[in-house]
Amino acid sequence: MDISKYTQKSQEAILKAQDLAVEHRHQEVTTRHLLYALLLQKDGIIPRLIEKSGADINQFKSLAEDIVNRIPSVHG
Predict the structure, then answer these.
(1) 74 lies in some domain
(2) Burial class (CB in 10 A: 0-12, 13-18, 19+), 67
(3) Left (φ > 0), alpha (ψ -120 to 50) or beta: where does 57 sit?
(4) How much is the pTM?
(5) Number of separate domains in the chain
(6) 1: pLDDT strictly greater than 80
(7) Is pLDDT above 90 for 39?
(8) Is residue 75 assigned to a domain?
(9) Distance of CA 8 to CAs 15, 30, 57, 71, Å?
């Protein structure tokens, strides 16, 4: 995967998803990590779309965080 072909925001989201997986000691980066990373982006398109729809972005973030926290972690 050549990350340089992605937009700046896409690159940031992918790197944040990787960081989240490492922080939580997960074996792989999943779409759940990417979703949470996209929701956390400041000035990102996903949070803006959610807010424009009238939904609560904080509720989305909270649910995504819970989903990431439920992924089994590896210790040792």
Answers:
(1) no
(2) middle
(3) alpha
(4) 0.90
(5) 1
(6) no
(7) yes
(8) no
(9) 11, 20, 22, 27
Alpha-helix residue ranges (DSSP H) falling in 1-76? 8-23, 31-40, 45-52, 57-69
Would you say residue 76 lies in a domain?
A: no
Q: What is the mean pLDDT of residues 48-67?
A: 97
2 in any annotated domain: no
**29-59 per-residue burial string, b: 16 or more CB within 10 A, e: under 16:** bbebbbbbbbbbeeebebbeebeeeeeebee
Give me the domain span that covers residue 47: 7-69
CA–CA separation, 29 and 34 (whole Å): 8
Q: How many angstroms separate the Cα of 58 from the Cα of each of 4, 13, 28?
A: 30, 18, 25
Amino acid 3: pLDDT? 83
